[in-house]
Specification:
It contains 1 helix and 15 strands. The chain is mainly beta. The radius of gyration is 22 Å and the shape is elongated. It comes from Acidovorax lacteus.
Length: 196
């Protein structure tokens, strides 16, 4: 009988400890990542439009509603790209692509993989294109995500993350729509996360 009571007491202590550890982490997480942006460059204008791939900085803020469910806001600074037609540079533009995603986090022996889905809004600015050529400066599209947080120390994680973001703009020549240009990049990131 005493052995059973000791076993139950030990189980309760372990469960309480795990719960306290989870609470100690807090509901917020901030990550800083270095991200490689690889553009899909799908063009229906017939001009062979493309933007360059590049490395960008990224910061995100997550709030955990439960141990498994979180919302993540992904931010960066406006990124300058060269726009080319058939491989020849024809101008430049900047894009600012914040995304808001809802995530589900797993816990596999302390390693925490996650998947997410949400919405991206991209604002194009500082558009410098040939005379008579313009683009729609606003883009809304879905964003998909998968990643993992690997514990390094108390509340500190190594983060690996992959996103597919759907970004497109209509292209106009002399006021007439010439087609649609889809950037639709894949973003592969690595960084650090801090839970508090």
């Amino acid at each position: 009988m005493n052995k059973h009571l000791l076993a139950v007491a030990a189980l309760c202590a372990l469960t309480s400890g795990a719960a306290l550890a989870q609470q100690a982490e807090g509901p917020w997480m901030v990550r800083a990542r270095a991200v490689h942006l690889d553009s899909a460059n799908k063009d229906s204008t017939g001009l062979g439009l493309s933007v360059n791939n590049k490395a960008i900085p990224e910061v995100d803020v997550s709030y955990f509603f439960t141990p498994n469910i979180a919302a993540e806001l992904i931010l960066t600074v406006p990124q300058k790209h060269t726009l080319s037609a058939a491989g020849v540079p024809i101008g430049t533009l900047k894009h600012l692509p914040p995304s808001l995603l809802l995530q589900y986090h797993f816990n596999v022996g302390g390693i925490k993989p996650y998947v997410g889905a949400g919405l991206n809004y991209t604002r194009f600015s500082s558009v410098n294109l040939p005379a008579g050529v313009t683009i729609d400066k606003n883009s809304f599209g879905p964003a998909l995500q998968a990643g993992v947080d690997i514990p390094l120390a108390k509340n500190l994680y190594l983060n690996l993350d992959v996103k597919k973001v759907y970004i497109k703009t209509d292209v106009f020549a002399a006021g007439v729509k010439a087609g649609t240009f889809k950037v639709d990049p894949v973003l592969v990131g690595v960084g650090l996360g801090w839970r508090f």
